[in-house]
Amino acid sequence: MVQVEVSVGPGETFDRALARFKKTCGKAGIVTEIKKRSFYEKPSEKRRRIEMKRQRKVKPRKSGDHSNSYNGRGSY
Q1: Which secondary-structure segment (H or E) carries 70?
Q2: Helices and strands of the chain, counted as H and E runs
Q3: Burial class of 6 by CB neighbour count within 10 A (0 to 12, 13 to 18, 19+)
Q4: Cut 0.70: pTM above it
């Protein structure tokens, strides 16, 4: 559990202090943790999600594959 603390200076507006609090929570990863825990994820779904994330990172791109690029000659 991460504790986030923001001290409000004299003369500082509530809106500015709230903005600093939100920024600090975002950096600490609290918002993403809450979103992740808001619904139950089955262990099989979790394994599948992690595996898909790993495959996206490792997936090599072929150097000769230009199927999605526009060559400027008007042919598709």
Answers
A1: none
A2: 3, 0
A3: middle
A4: no
Closest CA to 34 of 54, 56, 4: 4
Strands, E assignment, 3-75: none
Three-state DSSP state, 17: helix
What does 53-64 look like in DSSP terms, one character per residue? HHHHHH-PPPTT
Q: Which pair of structure tokens corresponds to residue 1?
A: 């559990």
5: helix, coil or strand? coil
Rounded Cα distance between 15 and 35, Å, is: 24
pLDDT tens across 22-42, in order?
A: 999 999 989 888 888 898 989
